[in-house]
Amino acid sequence: MERLETIILGTTEEDIRKGAEILRDGGLVAFPTETVYGLGANGMDAEAAGKVYAAKGRPSDNPMIVHIADRKALEGLTSGVTADMEALMDAFWPGPMTMVVEALPQVPRVTTGGLDTVAVRMPDHPVALALISESGVPIAAPSANASGRPSPTSGQHVLDDLNGRIHAVVMGDNCQIGIESTVIDMTGETPMILRPGKLTAEDFEKVLGKPVALDPALLQKPVLVEDPASQNGPAKIADADFKPKSPGQKYTHYAPKAEMIIFKGEPEAVRLAIAEAKLERVQFGEKVGVIIYDDSKPEEAAHNFFAELRAMDKAGVDVIFAAALKEDGVGFAVMNRMFKSAGYHIIEV
Questions:
Q1: Together in a domain, 111 and 188
Q2: Considering the chain, what percentage of its residues have pLDDT values greater than 70?
Q3: Containing structural domain, residue 62
């Protein structure tokens, strides 16, 4: 694609107005949210939304999340908001919750990944809300990284991947949560989590007073095959015919440049196995990175994980050894990202 001059914007009112103007004119603007940085385009402009796929090298059947600044904007995206949807919005918006709802015909299918549903969220970040509000349009915004790379949690991460490919970056603070929003599908009889995040099934069940399902794909290792259409190296897909309702369901994501291996088992056994594997690799002249988190602090792991992968890329490590967390609560969401980062390369110890 043609190389662009990427403008660096701050968070002043003047900068927000400039970013909003670029969005209204069909341009691409990256901006901070509480989860990760998003790459925004006018979600109701098919041509603008298409530019996001081109800039990221993103597969066109990978749906984007539409960001709004107030509930009234839902009226232009979907009809028939249910009592359950209202309850979840009351509890978790603004915040790290994305709802999949039936899309109105005017929502471009470029934005929805070709589906008749649309994923919507209201971010809990003053800069994001100001930018969306000032633009006056719903903003389609996947994570602001090259497709398949670790998600960006700082403005510099965005520039590392997309400088010269987008029109502007709003350089705000580093993201507080560090992993993407929880995606919950509200189009079926039973609400279903399609992508885990900080908000868990238990959080939703407390509000709704009924069970919330997990997408079965979250509980099994996919059979991965190479995607010949990938523009950023050998991306893999779980099922070439699968039509994902949510980002992160079909394609491998979050991968560092280095080989990555996850060690899973009792904490002490894992630490010993990692130490032995590191010693062996170092003896062969390789540079080794190690990621070990405290099981009792999954929120800290979520905040740091993507940034650590990117730091190890910059340090030029050859292989990353990571210790698995307990797969419950926020730890389940962290492990969802970690498994994908490693391409499901797991050693049981």
A1: yes
A2: 89
A3: 7-219
Domain count, the chain: 2
Residue 290 shares a structural domain with residue 200: no
Domain final residue pick, 219, 244, 262: 219
In percent, how much of the chain has pLDDT > 90? Answer: 84
Residue 176 and residue 113 share a domain:
yes
| pLDDT reported for residue 59 | 67
One domain for residues 166 and 260: no
**Looking at residue 64, what is its pLDDT?**
94
What's the mean per-residue pLDDT of the chain?
92
256 pLDDT above the threshold of 90: yes
Smallest Cα–Cα separation from 195: which of 250, 117, 249?
Answer: 249
Contact criterion met (CB below 8 Å) for 286 and 259:
no
Give tens-digit pLDDT for 124-174.
999 999 999 999 999 999 999 998 899 999 999 999 999 999 999 999 999
- The number of angstroms, rounded, from the C-alpha of 4 to the middle of its chain's C-alpha atoms is 24
- At residue 243, the pLDDT reads 56
pTM listed for this prediction: 0.91
Backbone angles phi, psi at 6, to 5 degrees: -85, 115
